[in-house]
DNA sequence: GTTGATTGGGCTAGTGTCAGACCATTGATG
DNA sequence: CATCAATGGTCTGACACTAGCCCAATCAAC
């Protein structure tokens, strides 16, 4: 029964490591940037500083972070996304299992399509339109290094602009579950061009207030990514 | 930042109470039925028996459960959904806040539409079609007492049939967030008839494999509910 | 240099949570 | 009526987590 599932995914330490890894891998804190101060971060995460420090130390020992003391010190992100490698891809898929993979792709398809449709259905302020266009432009201008991070930011803006934090959280969660996969896919120019066209279509549909077109555009975009995945796996 | 939100919603006791309340209010365990034995339930929920017992005692003291000892004993559900009352509705909305209300409705719209679209897009086995039709028939044959519970079961089957447990969980969560509201809405025959028509349309679209029609049908259904809510609130 | 603000590092006492064992009660079955 | 299996009730020792406090290091500003 869906509702009588475990109340907690693990202990506080494990969940904190997981969450920080999310922030790093999704590029919420990019390479070279630093996490908020421990005291502040502990409050945001709703845990004690002791537990947070244990998590940070684990990530430090795994070479994700470089921790420096003193004023202007902090926990700096050293992690840079690995170069795409289809060998990694197979390994990642083997780690997560094909069932979980299908689950994650289905979930992402549902929530991102839903978010785009909802966003297109509602009225948008000028600021919101500007933000969306800005994020789109960011992705289009992105170099290879920044592409995934800015692509993530674009997708998440769509969810955040709906004004529903539940929905934004769900989309962030969905994105995270496929981020290791996406990072392992080689970025070929032809695919990037294709994605760019689809991104344009998504934004156009949202700005036009065409809910069904928005859903269809996101659906095609994600289906394209899934097909790419299947291609590199077979 | 969405990703640096609290790692845990509360302590184990609080989360457990919340989860059991979900099971009771969503009708996963109906009035008169009993929860699984403590030892078993504790394993399912991933918590210790001590913590589970504290949660059960809290629900017992709040008159949701009747706990009996001995063989054939257990924690029996005594809670029956209150009679719809628009006064309750205003109170519930005041409790959750209008922002959270909008958030919950938006979230539900996105995930349920997404689930229906995904389900319609994929191929269905005969068993799956049967289950869907069965749930639809259950709602149509339901009395006033059982209506909400079977309506919930119908909506959740759509999500569960996608095969994505992440999606099923998201839909259950969304439903829960509006269940107090739905329970407070009077059930007028005209509304029930309207819902029945919409349910039929949803199932028809899914069985026909028409993804966009499925999304549209769910969208109209949920928009209808939202409109009903706004009506009783103004 | 010296200072002071900011940040990570470490300690302690108290509370929450857990696993496992054992006790108490109930009621169908023989 | 006696038995016994299933179930809730209780206790204990160990570990996880927290809040709060103070120490140590760093570096810009003076």
Automatic annotation (TrEMBL), chains A, B:
InterPro entries: GntR_C (IPR011711), TF_FadR/GntR_C (IPR008920), Tscrpt_reg_HTH_GntR (IPR000524), WH-like_DNA-bd_sf (IPR036388), WH_DNA-bd_sf (IPR036390). It comes from Nonomuraea cavernae. This is GntR family transcriptional regulator. Residues 10-80 form the HTH gntR-type domain. Keywords: DNA-binding, Transcription, Transcription regulation. GO terms for molecular function: DNA binding; DNA-binding transcription factor activity. The gene is pdhR. The keyword Transcription regulation applies. It comes from the Bacteria. It holds the Pfam family GntR. Gene3D superfamilies: GntR ligand-binding domain-like (1.20.120.530), Winged helix-like DNA-binding domain superfamily/Winged helix DNA-binding domain (1.10.10.10).
